[in-house]
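This part of the workshop introduces the protein records we will be handling. To make this concrete, we reproduce a full record directly below.
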Amino acid sequence: MKNLKDILYKVAVESVIGSTDLFISNIEFDSRKIEKNTLFIAQKGLVFDGHKFIDSSINDGAIAIICEELPSKIIENITYIKVNDSNESLAIISSNFFDNPSEKLKLIGVTGTNGKTTIATLLFELFNKANFKVGLLSTIKIKVDDVELPATHTTPDSITINKVLNQMVLSGVEFCFMEVSSHGIHQKRTAGLDFEGGIFTNLTHDHLDYHKTFAEYRDIKKSFFDQLPKSSFALVNIDDKNGEVMLQNTLANKYTYALKTIADYKVKILENQFDGLLLSVDNQELWTKLIGNFNAYNILAIYATADILGLEKLETLRIISELNNVEGRFQHAISKSGVNSIVDYAHTPDALKNVLETINEIRTHNEQVITVVGCGGDRDKLKRPKMGHIASILSNQVVFTSDNPRSENPETIIKDVEAGVQPENYKKTISITDRKQAIKAACKLANQDDIILIAGKGHETYQIIGDVRSDFDDFKIVNELLNEMDK
């Protein structure tokens, strides 16, 4: 139980009807989860407007309401608090309700288009192996030291974030590594959090269904760094032209990393193979099981972060050499007949280009690259032809298929992807709507030493068609199909 006036600390309140001297047992933005003595925060979402559920939430036990618009009917003995921004208020209230847990551990946010999951996850693994109690908030999973919780969004809602951070504090966690999405920043889910540092990976074409313009997408990412305090650090990939932009107005201590540009932290790729990378970091050679130029950036980011946070450099390099690929990120296997399969989350043009360029750098070119790829429904449509173009110019064969079509017609999505294929590459491509059949077709096309890339879904173990979510694991399916063909 918390006193309402205490959990309103730092909330920009415009007006109050009723008393704030009352005890709240629960805070909630979902009207279906209201209990007795709940504070209900009415948010204006993309689909639903929480203001329409104020009366029902009161009937179910809410005793106080946060809203941007006061209802026409004011109920006696209910407290109404008008605010300008319910999303921001929810974030601040959530932090206060759980005793501001982000202030009691070192919270590091990772943002950018690609690499967030890999960097956050590898930092968790690194600090765990260095014998720290660590937390992780990522697309793939949420971990409180050794306890794993389900993850549903890149950046969870404010209540979940603070509830989990509080669990971490109670479990003695010292460091937490968190993916910070542009959606999460824009919807103020990270407001009220005390970050020890922020990491910027890169910025490429994505989420323009939500942000409308690239400039808006960039500026929302930048706002995360603008809000970092003086006591924190900002670490950015300076090879990305937006790296300098992220640092422009930040008060944080500034650090840079790069492969190509002068930077505080540099790495050189000595060898790039399907079983790993040989790197030179701080004039020390490092062998890692991770593959590709993009992973050289990821490794450098985690090395730099560990150094900034005070870990011993040689010990950090030793631990990095033990780290494995993150699930669904360039996840590689070889069948008994010698066919290579790679499953990767690459769902943006830049990520797909990075993965295919890495494959083409490593391979001997005596084998063929067969790519299976699609695009998600109800998402950025502008990237679809770009994905088709990149897949067709960097692969020997391409099978266009469904990703998560959601409410869209999968054939329509595939046609959007096909539109990016140049005439000279038409003969390379086929389209098979059923994803499993598309993967099967790729397996039949493959001979010994060939490389099948299945892109777009990575770690996801489901497929969403319409409103039906079914089990679907790319890595499991491709390896089962290849093993069946080996018999």
Observations:
- The chain has 16 helices and 26 strands.
- The first strand starts at residue 2 and ends at 3.
